Amino acid sequence: xxxxxxxxxxxxxxxxxxxxxxxxxxxxxxxxxxxxxxxxxxxxxxxxxxxxxxxxxxxxxxxxxxxxxxxxxxxxxxxxxxxxxxxxxxxxxxxxxxxxxxxxxxxxxxxxxxxxxxxxxxxxxxxxxxxxxxxxxxxxxxxxxxxxxxxxxxxxxxxxxxxxxxxxxxxxxxxxxxxxxxxxxxxxxxxxxxxxxxxxxxxxxxxxxxxxxxxxxxxxxxxxxxxxxxxxxxxxxxxxxxxxxxxxxxxxxxxxxxxxxxxxxxxxxxxxxxxxxxxxxxxxxxxxxxxxxxxxxxxxxxxxxxxxxxxxxxxxxxxxxxxxxxxxxxxxxxxxxxxxxxxxxxxxxxxxxxxxxxxxxxxxxxxxxxxxxxxxxxxxxxxxxxxxxxxxxxxxxxxxxxxxxxxxxxxxxxxxxxxxxxxxxxxxxxxxxxxxxxxxxxxxxxxxxxxxxxxxxxxxxxxxxxxxxxxxxxxxxxxxxxxxxxxxxxxxxxxxxxxxxx
Length: 502
Known about the structure:
With 502 residues, the chain is an alpha+beta fold. It contains 11 helices and 13 strands. The chain has a domain at 5-70 and 460-495. Helix content is 54%, strand content 12%. Strand 2 and strand 3 (57-58) form a beta hairpin.
């Protein structure tokens, strides 16, 4: 046995304690770093030395085998899955809240109030059909109703454009995260070629995957069996089997704007596709379109809100379609009754009250007061009966009475009267918004709970690190004291033995 044998044992303890103190210092420094997982020095007793004659095995000190990060992969997967659901419901609730603001019901300026004012003016005209002042009020209230429908439609159109821009922004975020993850994969692979673990780089990658999981559903697969170090750090991220990141290669998504929206023919919206490459002029070469039904997360909610006209997750097109249905049915019914009546002047029979701006079927986008009513108040057909010259009887307001009854026509829509239609539409919107809000809040609590579980395992506890610091400091001091003791023992052998009698 070497004279310095005990010195080597103490030295291993000193270096291991020093390394452990360095890791503790690193943990404390990163206690508030997002995504950081606490690290720990793994220690084991060194291989013992067999003593001759079967006298036992003598310990040779301590080895630090690795610096590992404390992380629970199951909680990572669980958290990302729930975060995807949270991102989807949160985005949907935000969009439905915006639709509620556009509908603006109940309020003093919503469509129901404007419709009430319009019918109230018709009721007043039925009391004095020859009053030009009251006729002017009817016309202005009709204009207000048409303008309100025009404005709501334009707001929905703007929301479609804004949502399409949000889709493009989200796609850009996904591509950025994918590109950053691919670069980290390359760095991790190079750093782990010698069998070590690049813990800090892995933390950065995990944090990016956490953020990415809110945007789109991910499938994560690391290409390693724990034995082949050449595979270490290589990662594949997929969206329903289609690779988004394959180790150091990121496959981009792109938004192609060639197609037009089904409900809004005048609005081009981007169709989500895989990007296969770039042309010489830099324009993307697009592959097949991505079916939004396979997606989840914030991107899914945005696509649903932009595109869906039916199904469980109704979007803006559904509300545009219902608004157009209301406008066309209401205007058609109103016109049918109005054109049967008579105005106060010759030839004022058969006039429309509402018409479209572009000679197309009446919709919320193009409804307006007819040019006949706009030109002459006498063309408002208050009377049901006329004289020989198609001149409306001045005291006859029976046609106004019929027009006023449209307000209570429960057969006009499948949902009942015009007021019932608007109330049902707003009520359904409110239920959808409340459902989205509840699901968003529930998912937020669930994600927070899982994240707390993760933090309880991988997060840095300053109290625990301070305890470890004291523990490893004592170990370091004890190892240093042991080296001093061995040094004194060697000094006795070198400088004092054999000097008796001198």
